[in-house]
Amino acid sequence: MQRRVNPLPWKKVSPMDEKVKFIAAVCDGSVSITSLCETFGISRKTGYKWLNRYRQEGPNGLLDRSKSPHTNPNRVSFAEERFILALRKRHPTWGPKKLLVILEKDNPEITWPSASTIGNILQKRGLVKSRKKKREMIARSFPFQGYDHPNAVWCADFKGDFKLKDGIRCYPLTISDGYSRFLLCCKGLSGTKTYDTKKEFERCFREYGLPNAIRTDNGVPFAAGLGMSLLSTWWIKLGILPERIRPGKPQENGRHERMHRTLIIYD
């Protein structure tokens, strides 16, 4: 089942952490991409650019690609910016498009920047109020991958918890390969802490390679606020796509749930 085994970035601080967090939040699927872009302070175009690059190239697609020219022929001059700001001061309710129309009408000899550039100038000067948008709830942002080969999709879950004879509670972590249904891990842990769970995933990665995706529910430690749990962020840095089933839809991880029933029968 070997596919690839990469060095595991345990404590490295990556300059693309914000992009990784954005991808993790999208994978969680509980908030629309539009709302996430607003939360992260990026445009929808930039958000989708990161998503597409990650889907096509994995973590390497999130690395910065500088395309800035050495000179910018479209740079707005100081005088032009003063004109724009002065007009906006006289008409504080006017937007970039209206400002551009009046600027071109009053000073046709000047080549004015686009409305979007004027908007950027106003925003840079703190003259634009962000409008609060109602968050849309979506099922998920990526379609689930198919079980078409080993290591395509792994399934993981904690099979509840129970008390041992010595009074200590046991939390069984189970990990299986979706294609072969091979049980990769069935380990009783003392809790659902990220550190202990991560150790078991690291062991499985070293022994079986890395999957393309890991499908889980939305519980701890697989998901957190906006889906940005430490575990899912770590997976994304390794090039693994977290897949979240919808609340109350265990059938979306049906093969793994069926394996749990088998474990109970032979317990």
TrEMBL record:
One of its GO terms (molecular function) is nucleic acid binding. Coiled coil: none annotated. One of its GO terms (biological process) is DNA integration. Residues 146-267 form the Integrase catalytic domain. Signal peptide: none annotated. PANTHER family: INTEGRASE CORE DOMAIN PROTEIN, LOW CALCIUM RESPONSE LOCUS PROTEIN T. This is Uncharacterized protein YagA. It comes from Leptospira weilii str. 2006001853.
